[in-house]
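Bench notes, afternoon.
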Amino acid sequence: MIDHYQRVRTVWWEEDAQGAKVCMVDQSLLPQEVVYLRLDHEQQVADAITTLKVRGAPAIGVTAAFGMALALARLLREREARGEPLTMDEAQEHLRAAGGLLRRTRPTAVNLFWAIERMQRRADRAIEQGASLRELARTLQAEAQAIADEDRDACLKMGTYGAELIADGDTLLTHCNAGALATAGWGTALAPIYVAKRAGKKIHVFVDETRPVLQGARLTAWELQQEGVPLTLITDNMAGHFMRHGDIRAVFVGADRIAANGDVANKIGTYSVAVLAQAHRIPFYVVAPCSTIDFAIASGEDIPIEQRSPEEVTSVRGAQIAPTGVHVANPAFDVTPHSLVSAIITEKGIVRPPYDTTLRQICLEHYNPEKEYR
C-alpha cells in the first residue's frame, strides 16, 4: 500500500530549519497540476480548508489537528527568536483562538470539530500534568500525528470490511471524492474498491462528475486511474439511466456527518443517488469512520449545511456559464435519510439498521453525550 500513499499523499507534518510546516497537495489544481503546499501559519491552514485546497471530512479533521499543533509551535518559535518569554496562559489563549479560527472554516463535516476538541482536551490534560511549553508543543504534534495514523488505519479496516460486499465482476457507482485525497489513508468509499481490486476482483466504477466543483471528475477519476481501476465518468444526471439498464450493482459513498439515527450528510447530489438506488433495488452503502458520527445530533434535520459561493455554480474554472446576476442556490451538502441506507461501513465493522441502536453499540468509545461538535 505504500506506493499508493506516496502517489496520492494528502496532508502531513514536516519540520525544517525554518520551523514546522503543515504540508498538503493543492486539490483545487488537480488533476492538471500536482502542487504541494507547505504552510507555516494556522491562518494559511484555515484558508486552505475554506478554499478546498484540502477537503474531505477525515482529511480536514487531520488538517485541523496539525493546524492546532502548528499554531503553538509557530508562536513558541517566534517568541524565542525575539527573546520574549511565552507564558502558559498565553499559550492556552492562543490555542483557543486557533481552534476558533479553524472551527469557522466549514460547518458540516464533524471530523473537523471532533479533531479540534480532541486536540484541546489533550492540551488541557498535558498542562494539568505540569508539561512545559516545549513538552506541550511536542505533545500536540504527537496527538495530531496520532489522529492521522488512526485515520490511515481506519481506512484500511473500512476497506477490508467493505470489500466483503463487492463481488467479482461488479460495476459500482460512487459520488464525489471519498478516496485517498479525502483522508490520510486509502479513503472511505474508495477503500473497499482498492482492497477488492488488490484481492484480484474485477471491478468497474461509474464516477459521478459531482457538480458544481467536480470532485468526481477531477479527483475520483484521477485517483482511480492512478490505482489502475477501470472507470467510466458520467454526469450526475446519468446515474438513473445506468441503474435502469442494470449497469450498477451497488453504490458506495462517503459522509461528512452522520446523525445518531443514521441520517447521512454528504456531498450535494448524494440524496438523489440514494433515492434512485432504492427505486432500482440497488444497495446503497455509506463508508465512514466512527469520528464522522455525531451522537449529539438526533437526526439529519439538525445537521448544519454549508452554503458556498454562487460563483461555483455560475462558473467552471473561471469561465462563466450562466447569465450575469442570476440568483443562485449552492448548498454544498444534502442529507440522505437513514431509511435509504443499506449499511454503514465503519472501521469497527458493518452497521445495519436500526442505526439508532447499532451505531452506538459499535462506536461506543467515540460517544460522549455531553459533547456537541458544532
